[in-house]
Structures are given as structure tokens and as C-alpha cells.
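Q: Sequence in, structure out?
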Amino acid sequence: MAENLFTNSHILSWLQYFAANTEIDLEHVKILDITRKNKNLVPTVEAHRCVLVFTEAGDMDIFYRMWSVGLGDCEVVYNEGSEPEGPIKRNKVSEMIDRGINASAGMIVLNPNARSTIKFGMDNKKFYSGSVKYVGSEIRSVILSKMQIDERKNFCIISGASIAVETAMISGEGTIIAVEYKERDRETLEENVNQFCLTNVTIIDHVGADTMRDLPVPDTTMLVASASMEQEIEYLLKLNPKMEFVIYTLDFKTAAKMQDILGGFGLTDVTVIQIQVSKLTSKNVFENQPAPWIITASPE
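A: Exactly. Output:
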């Protein structure tokens, strides 16, 4: 796949074409070139009312994927051919699920129901129900907030399946390295990646030079505390001495000694918090969820 299939001049010509032939206000258009690496179509359309999408010929199920995640009412503005010329056509995504992309071209996707803000903490029912027991959405919201997700940051997420999925949706310009040690958990994560049409997630089975050699260096790592935690931190700090960490644990003893453990790696800016979430049940009784400790750490 060419890295520069659509140059600046191509993009400008398509913008001029749509400006001249439609009444769409292009002032706030989001430009998305999915021929480039790590570009997620579905999360971008969900978050923007107007997206100018550049595609490569041969993507035969692009509209089906959009329809399958609930974007069937979005409108597609396009033309036939690979050049910005000729008559404009408009159809809903639900009307285009049996067709694919036959030519490298630009198209506009209009989503009147787009959300304008970043949403943390998806309902667990939206994830593929495989082998993973997902952390509660409220807890996940706090973890994602602590990760300080930026569009262009790279992340390593160890044993945090649903967190990897949501991070990939938000960090549209970055790479998410998702580490799952169990084969069934990797399969579950793969199902979620496919379900949400994510292209910026790389799934590996452990942290090490053999699995991460050719991958982008993470800026932040989120991990679930485990017996291999210290080896993982040691290796990741060799990759990036300025690495920031967000650590999840349900074990009090582990949380209590985290400052000493992290201090041994030069991570002296450490914060430890505990989160308690209670939910009102149908019987009008508050039910307590597991109360994890969340530790953030970074070099001074």
C-alpha cells in the first residue's frame, strides 16, 4: 500500500470538487486517509459529523463494516471513478453494503448523530463476549483518564483487553501494542479489533525483544500487576527511559509495596489511589464492585 497515494494536491482537489458540487459546509471537515497505516474509519465517523475519507481500490466490505456497527444511517457523498470530476451521488451506508471500493478516490461520510466529545468507559455489553472478564466501565474510565491519551501517542497495554480497544479508538494516530498471554484472550481481543474495525492494534503474546523489535516505542504502558510485572517494566524502560506507567491491581499487598518497587526503577513520581464503585440493583440494594488500586508512575 502506497504511503503517499493521496498527496496534498490530491486532497485539495477533492476538497474543491466537493465544495463546488455540494452544499456541505466543509469548514469543520475531518480528513482521513485510510490508505495510510493506523487510520480507523469507524471511530472517526462516530466522532465527526463530516469526514472526507480517502480510500484505496479493493476494499470490498467497507460499507458493510460501517453498517454492522450501527452507522447505516450515515450518508455517503461520492462519485464514480478515481478523479474529482463528474456527477455527485448520495446514498445511505445501509444502501451500499453490497458494494465496495472499485477505485482509489475520496468520499464524504456524513453522520448527523456524531458525538462531539471523547467518551470513556464503553458498556461491557458492546464488547465481544469471549474469554475475558472485562473491568467495569466506570473503573475503565478512570484508567483511560490516567493514561492521558493523545491522538499520536503509542501505548503498550498488558492484559487489558477492553482498555486496549478503547485506547485504539481514541488514539487514532498512534499504535497500540496489546499483550495477552493466553491464546483464548488473544482470540477474544482479535474479535473485538475486527468488530470495531480497528487498524492500529498489534497483538503479541509477551513483552520482549523478539515481539517488539519492529514496533513503535510506547510512550505509556498500562498493565495489570502480575508475577512478570518487574521484568516487563525493566524491559520497557530500556526501550523508553521516560516511559509512563498506569498499573492496576486488586491486591492490597501489591499496591502497598508499589512505591518501593517502582522507586527501584527510578520511577519516583508515584501516585496510588483506590476506587470504589457501588451500583443500585433492581432490588434497590447497592452492590459493591471490586475496588482496585490504580498506580501511576513516571520518572521525575
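The two ends are 41 Å apart (CA to CA).
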